[in-house]
Amino acid sequence: MVKEFVDASIFLGMQSVDEAVRVACKNYFVDRFSQSIGMSDDQAGKCDRIIWKYSRELQDLYYPFMDRLRTDMDLQSLEYEAEDVAVALGDPRLEGLSMGRKLTLGMAIARSGKLYTIDEKLHQLNSTLSQSEQLPIVHPENGSEKFFRDRILEECYERSLALKIAQID
Fold it and tell me: Which of 146, 145, 127, 147 is nearest to 137 (CA)?
């Protein structure tokens, strides 16, 4: 059963113009390459919607990495379940968030997991809650850049860095 979930901000954070963010997001995937990670179909679609705004040339450099990572890693693309939606719509802590954020958090909460995100709006919300009300939101750890063990995957990643993203929202 998946206990860690990611949103589009972590996935696309690997392409961030901010080096600290880029490295933290990349390291998250390097460290968990052999683990099961969950991502909603909606968040995967958000990644595509953002990437499709870039030129065909940049997409052609980005997608070989994304395709290889999503194929070789156990990154499960998940549909929302009734309980995810019930939590998203019923948890008063989530009021005022966009539906996408609610559903993403609802999935993590309903499945007793943690959501890894660099979404500042979610981290700011969590900072306003008491310790007992905290949402299961985690920021990836900062550190020195790590590398994918698979040489071809790492080479694809390095080529994908031709596409850099300033804002993921």
Answer: 127
| Number of Cβ within a 10 Å radius of residue 6 | 28
Of 80, 98, 104, 101, the residue nearest 4 (C-alpha): 104
pTM: 0.95
Asked if 6 and 37 touch (Cβ cutoff 8 Å), the reply is: yes
Q: Mean pLDDT over all residues of the chain?
A: 96
Answer yes or no: are the C-beta atoms of 40 and 104 closer than 8 Å: yes
Cα dihedral: 62, 44, 137, 33 (round 10): -60
Give the mean model confidence (pLDDT) for residues 93-119: 97
Q: Is residue 124 within 8 Å of 145, Cβ to Cβ?
A: no
Separation of alpha carbons 23 and 143, rounded Å: 7
Q: Which CATH class is domain 4-160?
A: alpha beta
Place of tokens 């019930």: 86
